[in-house]
Amino acid sequence: MNIPEDRFGNVMRNGEGFDLHYTRRIKVPIDRVWAAITIPERIAAWFATADVQIEMRLGGAYRLRFGDEGPYAEGEITAFDPPRLLEHTWPDPPNPPGRVRYELEPDGEGCLLRLTSFGVPAPYIGSLAGWHIFLDAIEPSIGGVPVEWTMEAETTLMEVYKSRLPWLKVLVDAAA
């Protein structure tokens, strides 16, 4: 698997959990990327979700259901500055909720997207590969190319991350 160095996410310890940081240069204007991360049908095109419900305002609800019968992740929008900033909580009972922050800035004819997932508990560190795959799917989905998420692809990518970060291998294998 040949992945450009700038595509990998970075992991930092944050108390009991971890913060995951990603940057993507997307060759699409900021307003179209903003739509991809805020309009439910467009989110579903890259984020492997069957159902998305969002109240686009500070304090609004942010709900995602994974799979047709999966549970909802029900959070709240905690930062909102269209078309540059969206942040919402990511509940994980009984742990404190994490936060997911999308930051956009113009970059030539496209934009720069920075995503940070704050407070990821150790048992869910495998989401490092999941976010990587989902972020790579944003640009094709904007162009109308459907992207299908698979656990096999996420697992394969996680093996690449573990080979790059030996401490991560120990952590992921312990959580399995």
Topology:
Blueprint: E1 10-14, E2 17-26, H1 30-38, H2 40-46, E3 49-54, E4 61-66, E5 72-81, E6 85-92, E7 95-107, E8 110-121, H3 127-142, H4 151-164, H5 166-175
Antiparallel strand pairs: 1-2, 2-8, 3-4, 4-5, 5-6, 6-7, 7-8
Helix pairs in contact: 1-2, 1-3, 2-3, 3-4, 4-5
Helical run tally: 5
Number of DSSP strand runs: 8
The biggest sheet, with number of strands, parallel, antiparallel or mixed sense and barrel status, is: 8 strands, antiparallel
- What structural category do the secondary elements indicate? alpha+beta
The fraction of residues assigned to DSSP E strands is: 35-45%
Which residues form runs of ≥5 with pLDDT under 50?
none
> Mean pLDDT score, rounded?
90
List SSEs in N-to-C order.
EEHHEEEEEEHHH
Portion of residues within helices: 25-40%
Distance between the termini: 23 Å
Radius of gyration: 16 Å
Query: Which strands sit side by side, in order, in the main sheet?
Result: 1-2-8-7-6-5-4-3
Shape: globular
